[in-house]
Amino acid sequence: MSAIADFEQDQGTVRFTGDLLLSRLGKLPERLDAIDGGVSRVDLGSVDRIDTVGAWVVHRFAARLNAPVEGLDDDNRALFEQVVKADEPVARPEGIRSPLIRVLGEVGDAVVGAGRTLLGLLGFLGATTLAMLAVIRHPRRFRFNAVVHEFETVGVSALAIIGLMSFLIGIVIAQQGAVQLRQFGAEVFTINLVGRLTLRELGVLMTAIMVAGRSGSAFAAQLGTMKLTEEIDAMRTIGVSPMEALVLPRTVAAVVLMPLLGFYSSLVAMVGGCLLAWISLGIPPVTFIARIREVVPITDLYVGLIKAPVFGAIIAIAGCFQGMQVEADAEQVGLRTTAAVVQGIFLVIVLDAFFAVFFTWVGWD
Questions:
Q1: Which of 164, 237, 253, 319 is buried most deeply by CB count within 10 Å?
Q2: How far apart are CA 129 and CA 252, in angstroms?
Q3: DSSP line for 100-120
Q4: d(CA 249, CA 232)
Q5: What is the Cα–Cα distance from 103 to 109, expressed in whole angstroms?
Q6: Per-residue pLDDT tens for 192-210?
């Protein structure tokens, strides 16, 4: 049975006995605080066992009286040295800063963080490209089954929610357009609005936002969990590249399926617009389809199909990048997953604005 911690004082030496464990300290800290001086040496040679709490009590007592600690064996000395090393003063904020300085500091931190994230994304894009080139040189390393699995995750499982969202968006566009155009007696141009807006912009953009929320977050959570469980480290140990085995299949699936999902979304949105035009404006579906063929140029379809794979690549890379950055604890998984969704949507909108300017400049307006 372990002995209760105790001490005896003899001619300037305080000699501890028993077990300096949290459960065996009793009133020892209070008794040590009552000693004001006359101590030149602390002897722990008779101590059987010691834990971090006991080491901290002895260290605080010896430091207060400026007395050396002696008599520790090798194991207990290592523990005691770690406790002494951890005894560092806590940094305190220097007064209250003005709100302006605090806001400027937060803005500066945000800018630096955004710059580092951008550099990290660019580096991750380069690593993904190198992995793609390596797979092209060695086609047998291409993981076809993993890509097909991600096809189901990214595409097939998303058809229902994307279809519903697109159908409702088509109805909203047609309804709002009809209300505004009715003031000028031009309700028929609602068809132009629905056709061009869904094929050129909203079909692909809203699909990208949905894929970022569904698949981008899933990529980050999956890879983040694998980082915490050290599965990715195990893959590297056995000679499997995580970029080729995990990142590349997800990126290929997103790039391939985004044009298909975008086209599907545009068609469903036009179905929703057609239904509202039929019910509210009295335009039959045959007239709606014929008008769509007349007023929507084929370049609008090309614009959507060109943007879609770029959006898919950005979403997949942002999700995988954030997942690979997970460290330390499970809280990081949630934070990185949120960051993946936010960054994916932000980059998609930025690139969409760039594409809008670019296609107008080349005459596809």
A1: 319
A2: 11
A3: HHHHHHHHHHHHHHHHHHHHH
A4: 15
A5: 10
A6: 999 999 998 899 999 999 9
Q: For residue 259, count other CB atoms closer than 10 A to its CB.
A: 19
Give the pLDDT confidence of 85-108 residue by residue, as tens digits.
887 776 666 666 778 888 888 899
Check if the beta carbon of residue 64 is closer than 8 Å to that of residue 34: no
**Mean pLDDT of the 305-326 span:** 94
Give strand ranges (E) for the chain.
Answer: 6-10, 13-20, 41-50, 69-70
Three-class SS string for 149-169? HHHHHHCHHHHHHHHHHHHHH
Token duo for residue 225: 């969990």
**Rounded average pLDDT over 136-154:** 91
HSE, side-chain direction, 13 A CA sphere, residue 61: 27
The Cα 114–Cα 117 span in angstroms is: 5
Q: Are strands 69-70 and 13-20 parallel, antiparallel or unpaired?
A: unpaired
Burial class (CB in 10 A: 0-12, 13-18, 19+), 332: middle
Give 33-79 pLDDT, tens digit per residue: 888 777 888 888 888 888 888 888 888 888 888 888 888 887 788 88
- What distance in Å separates the CA atoms of residue 61 and residue 38, rounded to the nearest whole number? 12
Long-range CB pairs of 289-298 (<8 Å, 24+ gap) are 291/188, 291/191, 291/192, 291/195, 292/191, 292/195, 295/191, 295/192, 295/195, 295/196, 296/192, 296/195, 296/196, 296/199
Query: In this structure, are residues 243 and 128 in contact, taking their beta carbons and an 8 Å threshold?
Result: yes
Question: pTM value?
Answer: 0.73
Q: How far apart are CA 191 and CA 173, in angstroms?
A: 10
Angle, CA of 355, 359 and 363, to the nearest 5°: 170
Q: Over pLDDT 70: what percentage of the chain? A: 98
CA distances from 130 to 219, 246, 320 (A): 20, 14, 15
Which pair of tokens denotes residue 162? 């994307």
